[in-house]
Amino acid sequence: MFKSRLNELCQQRRWAPPEYEVTREGADHMPLFRATVAINGKEFRSAEDGAWSVREAENLAAMAAFERLSAVPAPLRPAPGELISPPASIHLEGPPKMRLQIYCQKAGKQLPSYRPIYEGSPHLRKFKSVVTVDGQEFESPEFCYKLKEAEAAAAKVALASLPPQASLPVLKVSSLSYKNLLQELAQKERFPFPLYNTTSDVPDYPGTYKSTVEVQSVIFQGDPGNSKKQAEMNAAKVAFQHFKNSK
């Protein structure tokens, strides 16, 4: 199974565990699944023609990721006795929000949560953002015309303020993807595949999303999220904890 081989590769290179996201199409009696796996800030997809089961779709995505990543040489490790000075700041590649998320995953912290601050009239609104990381809040320095830009600025402030990655204690990082956990639980208990319904423009929370998930004919609603993925994760968390507590 390529999922197992991909997990081993991530452990060897000290990356956060793979996170899978599955979509379903087609009729109930003949569903078709496609999967995406996120690793170290990059996404890999299963074949376009899809698969007949969630497990097969995830394995195809894992195969695409493993074949691509295993071809890249692992970074050289220092020789015995060789000292490497820790960096003065967090050096990761990619947009600030993605870099901050990877930082939290590697440090074993909960994913960052963003809170918007508004200024101006509805037709000419400007934004600031506050990001919370491990109980600490970091605010973007100035107002922006797009919420996404304000969140990126807040993430940049957090990255500059948090301790360098090299100085963090080595922790066993666990996946916080409740969508994966809920999906695995549904497969194990032979529940129908979880169905998500996500909407944007939530009242009193402009620029956010709200999601519900239906499992066993029961609908669960999560807190609003600043992205569709986060909103679905919040709904999946409510559903997963419900079934876990009921058992």
How does this model look, in words?
- With 247 residues, the chain is of the alpha+beta class.
- The chain has three domains: 70 residues, Double Stranded RNA Binding Domain, CATH 3.30.160; 72 residues, Double Stranded RNA Binding Domain (2-Layer Sandwich), CATH 3.30.160; 69 residues, Double Stranded RNA Binding Domain (2-Layer Sandwich).
- It is 35% helix and 25% strand.
- It has six helices and nine strands.
- The strands form three sheets. A three-stranded antiparallel β-sheet has the order 1-2-3, with helices on one face. Strands 4-5-6 form a three-stranded antiparallel β-sheet, with helices on one face.
- α1 crosses α2 and α5 packs across α6.
- The two termini are 30 Å apart.
H-E string: HEEEHHEEEHHEEEH
Oligomer type: single chain
- Let me know the largest β-sheet: 3 strands, antiparallel
Q: What share of the residues does DSSP label as strand, in percent?
A: 15-25%
Low-pLDDT segments, ≥5 res: 78-91, 166-175
Q: How many structural units, i.e. domains?
A: 3
Based on CA atoms alone, the radius of gyration comes out at 20 Å
Estimate the global geometry from the Cα principal axes: globular
Report strand order across the widest sheet. 1-2-3
- What CATH calls the topology of the largest domain is Double Stranded RNA Binding Domain
Which structural class best describes the helix and strand composition?
alpha+beta
Q: How many β strands by DSSP?
A: 9
Q: Tally the helices: what do you get?
A: 6
Tell me the distance between the termini. Answer: 30 Å
Return the CATH architecture of the largest domain.
2-Layer Sandwich
Q: Round the mean pLDDT to the nearest integer and report it.
A: 78
Determine and state the CATH class of the largest domain.
Alpha Beta
Instruction: Give the proportion of residues in helices.
Output: 25-40%
